[in-house]
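Example 4.3 (complexes with small molecules)
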Amino acid sequence: MSSALSTKGLQKRFGSLVVAQDIAIELPHGVRYALIGPNGAGKTTLINLLTGMVRPDAGSILLGDADITALSAQTRVKRGLVRTFQINTLFPQLNALESVTLAVLEREGTSGIWWRRLPVHRDAIDEAFGILRSLGLADQCHRPTREMAYGEQRLVEIALALATKPRVLLLDEPAAGVPKEESAGLFTAIAGLSDALTILFIEHDMDVVFRFASRIIVMVSGRILVEGTPAEIAVDPRVREVYLGGVQHD
Amino acid sequence: MSIQANNPHQILSAGLGWTRLEIIFWLALLLPFVLTPSYLSLASQIAITALFAVSLDLILGYAGIVSMGHAAFFGLGAYTAGLISKAGWGEPLTGLVIAAALAALVGYGMSFIIARFRHLALIMITLGLGLLLHEAANSASWLTGGADGLQGVKIRPLFETFKFDLYGTTAYAYSLAGLFLMFLIARRLIHSPFGLALRGIRENWTRMPAIGADSQAHIRKIYTVSAAIAGVAGALLAQTTETVSLEVLSFQRSADVLVILILGGAGRLYGGIIGAIIYMVARDQFSGVNPQYWYFWIGLLLIAVVILLPNGILGGLSRLTVRWGGTWR
Ligand SMILES: Nc1ncnc2c1ncn2[C@@H]1O[C@H](COP(=O)(O)OP(=O)(O)O)[C@@H](O)[C@H]1O
Ligand SMILES: [Mg+2]
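Answer. The structure with adenosine-5'-diphosphate bound is encoded below.
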């Protein structure tokens, strides 16, 4: 069976800075992948490339068997390749329920309907509320997003992505800025998502990475250094070099 | 009204119904017929300007798309209505429909450019469109009458019964009805899934593609609707005054409607209406005293409102009136 998401020879430079150098990855269906590496390694850029928010200079991206390299960002989402953002990218004045309902309506293709009132779309609203409830946000979903606690806003990031019914979900530091005690809960929620879902998450906390990832990709300076199981990565001398030998990460 | 936090349907229905305040507001707009019968022509112009402001609110207040040249569509509607009546088709209602259709068509064409740009680029493009149409109408004086305006517009009585009289009774009734009907459409639209999508675009342009949204398609659609409504407003002016001057396409008109909307409160649907009433009544009062200072006071008012009431007069008012019958949305 083909992999859920794969790339060949992905290349990107910003001016003279090479941020993606010959990136080849293959994510099998249903696997929980962690993408780790020092700050500035090009992890976020890789997600931008995969999701079509940045165009690669060379290389190709396949979702299942289909080459999606030329597709727009929103078309990739419609095909099931969805991301969240390292820095909250939400709808500040919409409440969480409105935000997630919007994502459901966009997926259903009913967001262009202007002649019916929103409350008529009961199924979409129920679905959005169900997603928010599953993430523990049922009590907060009437509040404008910008008024929610930071950790709750991180969950809205994930709720928006889930509402698109992804097949491959790319989480860019989902717990960024969340206190360590809360981040475990957040990852438990992520781990509880459907097994059919292929997940790649970027995370700096090694305890979390080793607990929740079934495989790990290590990126350094725009290249993939090594890929393997947590056990393999833990003893890999090159990884130790990067993490213990002077290169800073936060 | 307290919202039950765990009933999602209640959360999304909140504020969508007609409030007491809204009903009183619309009934109050009938008062000029009895209270100030000698001001009905002014009342009609206010209703038309209010409708123009509502059309701008749909793109600026809801979708966050700035326009510095919205008079292009107002003027297009006005000239269309004027020209077809001059050509012998003086029936007002069909005139409105034709004017709206033409404005919508041009708006749809423009929307392909509009949907690709944001911020400063958008200001420049819409400004350019406004200037371009103004100059085109000025040059095509064989068609438009140029700086002298379009003469010889004759409108048939409304429903072949109500003549557009000197007192403006028919004019105000007609403009007010036009405003109300278009308002109903705008109101439904912003309460719909599409309205939610527009607010999504306004709130976060970057996130929209990441939830699979085709923002450009949404923008093309609302821009077309907005152009059509602006066209109706322009056509109403041409028909009720039986003349079209070059001023309908002027930058001044584009700037005024922007000021009116921001004063009243953008993104609230009623902001444009309240803004138009205050602005035009004040201008009418001032013009008797010292008209040359009008823009001085407007400038001052604009600065004060933006600093003290960032959500416009209506934004300030709504904080006071929530208790009294719900918010103005
Ligand atoms: N749009 C951009 N233009 C120029 N440089 C960029 C851009 N985006 C990222 N970079 C640079 O690319 C490098 C990789 O960034 P990023 O992918 O965000 O790293 P990471 O997510 O691994 O911390 C950094 O040096 C960053 O400054
Ligand atoms: Mg990053």
